[in-house]
Amino acid sequence: MADVSLKEELLFRSACKEDINRIDGIEKRVFPYPWSKSQLYYELINKASVPIVVEFSGKLIGYSFSFYVVDEGHIANISIDTPYRGRGFGGSLLDRTIYELSDRGAEKIFLEVRENNYTAINMYVSRDFVEYGIRRRYYANGENAILMKKEI
Fold first, then answer.
1. pLDDT tens-digit series, residues 6-33
2. All domains of the chain in start order, with CATH
C-alpha cells in the first residue's frame, strides 16, 4: 500500500470525456494490445459503466473501467501509468473500484487477468479475489486469462 502521505494526495473521481487523451496515452504505454480510443470512449458513455480516474498531485496517473449490472460488478480494465507503478496506487485504485461497485449493490465482482501478470494476480488475491477458471487463448496474442471473483 502507498504510505499515508501519498494517499492524502490521491484524488479519485469519475472519468469524463476530457480525460480520454490522457487515458489513451496510459493505455498505449502500459498494454501490449491497448484498447482503441473508441473502446475507451464507449466505456465513458455506457450507462452500466463505472469509469474512475485517479490523480496524484494533480496529474492523472491511472484509471479503471468497470460495470455494474443487477447485483454483479465486472472490472474490465484497470491501470496505473508506468512511472507510478510499484507504489501502491494500483491497490488504492482497486480498493476504490471495489467500493464503487459495492456501493451500487454488487454482491460479486468478476475480472480476467493475464495468466503471467503475477503482480496483478497478487494484488487481486490480497483483496480476496479467488480464481474460478481459465479462458483459453483469451488475449490477442493467444495468452490465457485467469478468471477471478470476489464475494462482497
1. 556 899 999 999 999 999 999 999 998 8
2. 4-151 (3.40.630.30)
